[in-house]
# Entry
Amino acid sequence: MNATPADAQRTEPAEDRTGGCLCDRIRFTAQGPAGFPHTCTCRHCQELCGTPVMWWVGFATVTWAGEGGEPTWYVTFLGEAKRGFCPTCGSRVAAIDSDIPDIGINVALDDSSGEELVPIHASFHDNAVRACRPL
# Structure
């Protein structure tokens, strides 16, 4: 199996992608190429999503639509980062970080099968859940 180097970037043509939260009140169209597709196992992401790993991908532009409009934003790190979620169903859908130009999407996409969305980066390896061992 061939592994993709950690610093590799994909150059597929930009494609508009749609997605939304669980109850569909928050809908969006993400425009531009998918940037820095990755998983994150930092303690913050684990607490945010209640799972051992979170899957993110960035887009240059996100247009909010749907009955709920833009997500509700929660400031996670004052002056540095905020996370967007649906106030109705609680789904986490996005992130804005001051040092990253793209809007992070939690891959809550209608179609997440594109090769350009496959995580080729991983953050916080040391915090990852250890593999299960057979008894």
